[in-house]
C-alpha cells in the first residue's frame, strides 16, 4: 500500500519532469519557426500579385488524375485517365496559396523542418508526461484543470501532426500552434497546477472518459479551425488590398506566404463542420452523465450553459455559411466568437462562475 | 427569400430568387465565400457563365432556401390590399387582403434562414445572463445571498426576470419564435424533399463544360454503347439514373437532405421532451437514518418540488429502507479528507408485489425502480441519545437531527424535548444544542472535526429550559433551537453548562432535571427521488439529432451527367460533368473514377488530343 503510493508519487514526479522538458523543446521549436519566418521574409516572394494578374482572367484549372492499374504488368503501368477540368466558383479570387513560412528560401525551409522535428520530439515528451500522470493517479488524466490543460495541449499538437501526416497544407500553423501550446502549458504548470490525486465520487464514472475526452478532442480541433479562421481574416484583407491594386500593406510579406483566403476558409469550415457533431455528442454524453450523477440531465449549471452557448454559436456559424450575405468574413467572425465561448467555458467558468462543475479543481 | 417549391425542371423564366442554383454552386463553398461572390439578382446564381438550361440542371440540389441578397430591399412590401373598392364591403375585402398579405409577409420573414440565424444568435446571447446571475431554480440559497447583498440591483433584476432567465418571458419568446421558425422551415422543405425523391434527376445541361468538374474524350465506341455502359457504371455506384436522349443524368446523396431534416425535427422532439419533463416532473428529498425506511408518498418527503401538471397520485408506489451507509476518504496527501466512495446499502420493494430486493446506491449509480430514480445526494452522522426526565422515564430516544457544516463533517445538532417532567413532576420543556464531531482532536484547540470518518467522535452539548415555541403552530426547523424564550442551564459558578460526551457517556443536568445518555452513532443519507417522464424522449431526440447531423454534414449531394454524341470526325465524343452542393475535392475525384470505369467500354481514341497533355495541377484544384 505504502510502496504503491511511493511508486505513484515517483510517477507523478516523472510526469512533471516530462512536461517541463516538453516545454523546453517546444521553446526550441518556437525559435526554429521564428527563424523559418525570418529567412522566408528575405526570399523573393512577391508571387501573389503576379499570379493575381496572370490568373485573374483564367477561371478554369485542370487536374490530371492518373491511377495505377494492377492488371498490367504488376501495377507498374500507368493508365492515363482523361483530365478532369474543374472551374472555381464565380466571384472567387483565384489567388493561389502562398509558399509557406519559409517562402522560397531553402534555409528557411530547413529551419521549418527542424522546427517540426522538434515539435514531434516535444510532443512525445508531452504525451509521456500525460501518460505517466494518468498512471500515477490510475485514471484518465483529466480530473482537474491542470490535467485537462496538459492533455488538451497534447491533443492539439496531435491534431496538427496528424494533418501534416495526412499531407494537408497546415505547415503555416506551426508557429501559432507552438506559441499557444507554450502558453497553455505555462498556465498549467504555474496557475493551474494540482498535485496528482484521486477523484471525488461524483467524477467516478466511465462517462468521465467519454465526455471529457470528446470535449478535449473537440476543443483541440476547434482550436485549429479558429486559427485558420483568424488567418483567413488577415489574408482576406490582404487579398482585397491586392485586388484593389494596392500593395500588400505592412504585413504583406507575411501574408503573401500564407495559403489563400479561400483555402483557409475552406479548411476552417471543414474542421468546424466535422467537429460539430462531436461537440454535440460531448454535450449529450455530459447530459447523460449529469443524469446519473445529479438526477437531472440538464440544470442550467454555468458549465452547461456555456457548453450550450458554444454549441448554438457553432450552429450559427454553420447557418451563416449557408446563407448568402453571411458567408466569408461574417461567418469567420462567428467562428471566432464560437471558439471564444469554448475557451470561456473552459477557463472562465471554472475561475469566475463556479457551479457544480468547479470541483474539477482550479 | 422565397419558399416556393422548385421542381428540378424549373426554368429561368419564373424568378431567379426561386432558383436553388446558389446552393447548388456551393452553399458551403468558401471559394464562393468572398464578399463579392453574392450573385446579383439579375443573374443565375450558379455562376455568371451558366446558361439558362444549366440553371435548371442545378436547381434544387438541396432543399435549403436560397437567400436572395436583394431580399432585404424587395421584401418590404407596399400595400398588399391592392385597389380598394368603394363601400364597406370593399373596405372589408381590402382589409382582409391587406391583413393576409402582411401575415404572409411576416411568416415568410420569420421562416427565412436569415431570421433563423438572427434568432439563433439571440438565443446564445440570451443564455448568457443566466450563467452570470445566480438562478433561483439552480441554487436558491446562492440566489438569496446575492439578493441580500445587492439591495439596489435586486428590484431591477427581478423586473427583468434575471433570477429565472430560462423561464423568463423574453427567453421563452426567443426560443418559441425560433421553434416556430424551425417548423415553418421544416414543413415546406419536407414536401420539397419528397418531391425531389419522386422526381427524376434533371436532364443534362446543354453545355457540360460549364459545370464545376468536367472531362471529355473521343472514342471509337458507338454512343449507344457508351451510354449503356455509363448507366451501368453509375447504377453500380448507387446513383439514381435517368436516361434521356443522348445523355444520362444521375444524382446521389439524398441522405444529406434526409439527415438535415431529421436533425431539425429531432430538435423539436428534444424541446418537447424537455418541456414534458418540466411540466410533469416530481422531485423530492428525504433524509433517512440507518435502519429507517421510506415509502413513496407525498407526506413522507422532507421537501418536494413538482411540475405544474403533476398530481400526487402520479407518484410511483415503491419503498426502501437504508440498511447501512459506508464512506471512504483520502487518508494522506494534499487532498486528505476528500471523499473517495460513498455507498448506501438499501433494501427495496418496487410495489408490484411484496418481495424485497437488496441494492447499493452510489453517487453515479441511482436506483431505478418503478419508473422513479433514487439518487444519493448527501450524508452525515446522527448521534443516538436517550433522555430520561427527572422521574427516570424515557422522554426521548433516537437520533438527534444533525446538519454538516464543513467538509470534515463537523455538525450542529439539536434535540427538543417538549413533553417531560422534572423531579417534582412539573411539566417542562428542554432543548439541547451543540456539535457533533466525527474526528475530535483537542490538541488543535478547536472543536472542528479534523477528518470526515468516525476516528474519534465526540458530542458537545449544552441545554436550555423554557418554552421551545413548538406549541405556537409556526413550523420550526428541526435543526434549529429557538432560545428566545429559554434559559441556558449554568453550573454552580454561573458559567454556561456544557459537556463533552464520548459514546457511552452520560450527561446529568443541574437541578436533577434529567440525564442524557450518548448511546452511539448512526449514519444518515439524503436521497432525491425523481420521476421524469420526458427523459426517454430526450434521449431518442438526442440520438436522432446526432445521426441526422452526421448525415447532413458528411454526405454530399451531387449530380453527374454523361453525354455521348457523334462528333464531326465520326468518332463519339464522351462528355462527363459533375455538380456538387459544395465544391469539394471529392467530386472531381469521383468524376475521374467514373471516367476510368467507363474507359474499358469507351476507350479513348489513340490520337485523342485531350488526354495527351498532363497539365500541372493548379493550386486551387489541389486544395
Ligand atoms: C433550433 C435551432 C437550430 C439549430 C441548432 C440548427 C442547426 C443547424 C445545423 C448545425 C446545420 C448544419 C448542417 C449543414 O450545414 O448541413 C443546419 C442546417 C440548416 N438549417 Fe438549421 N438549425 C436550427 C434552426 C433552423 C431554422 C429555424 C431553419 C429555417 C429557417 C433552419 C434551416 C436550416 C437549413 C436550410 C439548413 C441547411 C443548410 C445547408 O444545407 O447548407 N435551421 N442547421
From TrEMBL, chain A:
GO terms for molecular function: heme binding. The chain crosses the membrane at residues 17-39, 114-136, 148-166, 173-194, 206-234, 267-290, 305-324, 331-349. It is a multi-pass membrane protein. Pfam families: Cytochrom_C_asm (PF01578). The keyword Membrane applies. Keywords: Cytochrome c-type biogenesis, Membrane, Transmembrane, Transmembrane helix. It comes from the Bacteria. One of its GO terms (biological process) is cytochrome complex assembly. The keyword Membrane applies. It is found in: Membrane. GO terms for cellular component: plasma membrane. Residues 144-353 form the Cytochrome c assembly protein domain. NCBIfam families: cytochr_II_ccsB (TIGR03144). This is C-type cytochrome biogenesis protein CcsB. It comes from Streptomyces morookaense (Streptoverticillium morookaense).
Amino acid at each position: 500500500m505504502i510502496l504503491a503510493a511511493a511508486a505513484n508519487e515517483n510517477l507523478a514526479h516523472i510526469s512533471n519532469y516530462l512536461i517541463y522538458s516538453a516545454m523546453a523543446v517546444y521553446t526550441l521549436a518556437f525559435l526554429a519557426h521564428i527563424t523559418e519566418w525570418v529567412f522566408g521574409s528575405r526570399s523573393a516572394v512577391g508571387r501573389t500579385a503576379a499570379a493575381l494578374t496572370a490568373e485573374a482572367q483564367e477561371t478554369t484549372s485542370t487536374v490530371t488524375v492518373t491511377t495505377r492499374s494492377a492488371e498490367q504488368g504488376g501495377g507498374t503501368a500507368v493508365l492515363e485517365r482523361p483530365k478532369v477540368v474543374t472551374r472555381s466558383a464565380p466571384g472567387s479570387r483565384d489567388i493561389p496559396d502562398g509558399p509557406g513560412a519559409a517562402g522560397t528560401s531553402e534555409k528557411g525551409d530547413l529551419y521549418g523542418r527542424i522546427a517540426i522535428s522538434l515539435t514531434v520530439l516535444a510532443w512525445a515528451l508531452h504525451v509521456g508526461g500525460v501518460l505517466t500522470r494518468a498512471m500515477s493517479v490510475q485514471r484518465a488524466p483529466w480530473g482537474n484543470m491542470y490535467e485537462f490543460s496538459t492533455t488538451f495541449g497534447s491533443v492539439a499538437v496531435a491534431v496538427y501532426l496528424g494533418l501534416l501526416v495526412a499531407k494537408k497544407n497546415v505547415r503555416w500553423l506551426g508557429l501559432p500552434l507552438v506559441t499557444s501550446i507554450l502558453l497553455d502549458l505555462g498556465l498549467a504548470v504555474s496557475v493551474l497546477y494540482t498535485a496528482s490525486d484521486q477523484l471525488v465520487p461524483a467524477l467516478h464514472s466511465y462517462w468521465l472518459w467519454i465526455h471529457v475526452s470528446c470535449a478535449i478532442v473537440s476543443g483541440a480541433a476547434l482550436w485549429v479551425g479558429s486559427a485558420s479562421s483568424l488567418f483567413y481574416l488577415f489574408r482576406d484583407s490582404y487579398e482585397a488590398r491586392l485586388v484593389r491594386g494596392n500593395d500588400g500593406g505592412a504585413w504583406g510579406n507575411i501574408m503573401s506566404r500564407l495559403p489563400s483566403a479561400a483555402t483557409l476558409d475552406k479548411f476552417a469550415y471543414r474542421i468546424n463542420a466535422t467537429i460539430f457533431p462531436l461537440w454535440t455528442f460531448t454535450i449529450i454524453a455530459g447530459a447523460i452523465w449529469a443524469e446519473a450523477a445529479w438526477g437531472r440531465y440538464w440544470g442550467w449549471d454555468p458549465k452547461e450553459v456555456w457548453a450550450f452557448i458554444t454549441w448554438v454559436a457553432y450552429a450559427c456559424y454553420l447557418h451563416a455559411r449557408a446563407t448568402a450575405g453571411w458567408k466569408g468574413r461574417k461567418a469567420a467572425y462567428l467562428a471566432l466568437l464560437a471558439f471564444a465561448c469554448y475557451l470561456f467555458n473552459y477557463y472562465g467558468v471554472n475561475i469566475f462562475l463556479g457551479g457544480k462543475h468547479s470541483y474539477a479543481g482550479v | 427569400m422565397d419558399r416556393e417549391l422548385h421542381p428540378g425542371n424549373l426554368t429561368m423564366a419564373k424568378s431567379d430568387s426561386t432558383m436553388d442554383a446558389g446552393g447548388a454552386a456551393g452553399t458551403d463553398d468558401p471559394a464562393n465565400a468572398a464578399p463579392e461572390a453574392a450573385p446579383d439578382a439579375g443573374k443565375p446564381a450558379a455562376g455568371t457563365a451558366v446558361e439558362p438550361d444549366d440553371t435548371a440542371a442545378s436547381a434544387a440540389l438541396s432543399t435549403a432556401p436560397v437567400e436572395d441578397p436583394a431580399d432585404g430591399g424587395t421584401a418590404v412590401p407596399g400595400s398588399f390590399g391592392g385597389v380598394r373598392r368603394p363601400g364597406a364591403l370593399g373596405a372589408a375585402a381590402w382589409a382582409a387582403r391587406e391583413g393576409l398579405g402582411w401575415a404572409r409577409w411576416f411568416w415568410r420573414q420569420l421562416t427565412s434562414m436569415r431570421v433563423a440565424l438572427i434568432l439563433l444568435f439571440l438565443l446564445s446571447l440570451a443564455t448568457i445572463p443566466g450563467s452570470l446571475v445566480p438562478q433561483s431554480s439552480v441554487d436558491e440559497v446562492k440566489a438569496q445571498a446575492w439578493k441580500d447583498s445587492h439591495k439596489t440591483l435586486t428590484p431591477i433584476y427581478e423586473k427583468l426576470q434575471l433570477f429565472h432567465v430560462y423561464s423568463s418571458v423574453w427567453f421563452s419568446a426567443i426560443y418559441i419564435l425560433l421553434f416556430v421558425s424551425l417548423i415553418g422551415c421544416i414543413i415546406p422543405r419536407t414536401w420539397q424533399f419528397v418531391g425531389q425523391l419522386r422526381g427524376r434527376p434533371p436532364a443534362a445541361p446543354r453545355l457540360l463544360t460549364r459545370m464545376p468538374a468536367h472531362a471529355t474524350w473521343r472514342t471509337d465506341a458507338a454512343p449507344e454503347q457508351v451510354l449503356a455502359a455509363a448507366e451501368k457504371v453509375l447504377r453500380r455506384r448507387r446513383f439514381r439514373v435517368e436516361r434521356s436522349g443522348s445523355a444520362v443524368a444521375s444524382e446521389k446523396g439524398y441522405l444529406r437532405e434526409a439527415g438535415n431534416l431529421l436533425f431539425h425535427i429531432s430538435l423539436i422532439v428534444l424541446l418537447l421532451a424537455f418541456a414534458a419533463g418540466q411540466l410533469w416532473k416530481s422531485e423530492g428529498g428525504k433524509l433517512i437514518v440507518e435502519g429507517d425506511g421510506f415509502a413513496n408518498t407525498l407526506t413522507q418527503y422532507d421537501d418536494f418540488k413538482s411540475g405544474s401538471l403533476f398530481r400526487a397520485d402520479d407518484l410511483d408506489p415503491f419503498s426502501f429502507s437504508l440498511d447501512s451507509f459506508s464512506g471512504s476518504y483520502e487518508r494522506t496527501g494534499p487532498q486528505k479528507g476528500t471523499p473517495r466512495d460513498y455507498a448506501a446499502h438499501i433494501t427495496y420493494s418496487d410495489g408490484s408485489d411484496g418481495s424485497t430486493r437488496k441494492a447499493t446506491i452510489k453517487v453515479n449509480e441511482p436506483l431505478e425502480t418503478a419508473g422513479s430514480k433514487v439518487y444519493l445526494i448527501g450524508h452525515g452522522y446522527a448521534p443516538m441519545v436517550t433522555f430520561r426526565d427527572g422521574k427516570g422515564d424515557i422522554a426521548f430516544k433516537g437520533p438527534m437531527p444533525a446538519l454538516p457544516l464543513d467538509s470534515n463533517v463537523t455538525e450542529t445538532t439539536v434535540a427538543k424535548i417538549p413533553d417531560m417532567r422534572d423531579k417534582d413532576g412539573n411539566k417542562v420543556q428542554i432543548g439541547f444544542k451543540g456539535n457533533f464531531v466525527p474526528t475530535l482532536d483537542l490538541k488543535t484547540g478547536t472543536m472542528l472535526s479534523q477528518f470526515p470518518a468516525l476516528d474519534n467522535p465526540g458530542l458537545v452539548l449544552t441545554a436550555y429550559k423554557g418554552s421551545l415555541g413548538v406549541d405556537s403552530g409556526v413550523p420550526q426547523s428541526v435543526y434549529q433551537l429557538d432560545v428566545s424564550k429559554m434559559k441556558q442551564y449554568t453550573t454552580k459558578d454561573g458559567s454556561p453548562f456544557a459537556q463533552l460526551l464520548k459514546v457511552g457517556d452520560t450527561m446529568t443536568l443541574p437541578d436533577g432535571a434529567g440525564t442524557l445518555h450518548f448511546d452511539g452513532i448512526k449514519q444518515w443519507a439524503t436521497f432525491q427521488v425523481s420521476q421524469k417522464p420526458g427523459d426517454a424522449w430526450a434521449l431518442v431526440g438526442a440520438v436522432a439529432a446526432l445521426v441526422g447531423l452526421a448525415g447532413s454534414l458528411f454526405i454530399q449531394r451531387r449530380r453527374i451527367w454523361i453525354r455521348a454524341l457523334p462528333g464531326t470526325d465520326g468518332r463519339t465524343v464522351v462528355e462527363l460533368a459533375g455538380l456538387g452542393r459544395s465544391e469539394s475535392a471529392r467530386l472531381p475525384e469521383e468524376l475521374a473514377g467514373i471516367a476510368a470505369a467507363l474507359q474499358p467500354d469507351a476507350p479513348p481514341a489513340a490520337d485523342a488530343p485531350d488526354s495527351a497533355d498532363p497539365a500541372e495541377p493548379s493550386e486551387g484544384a489541389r486544395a
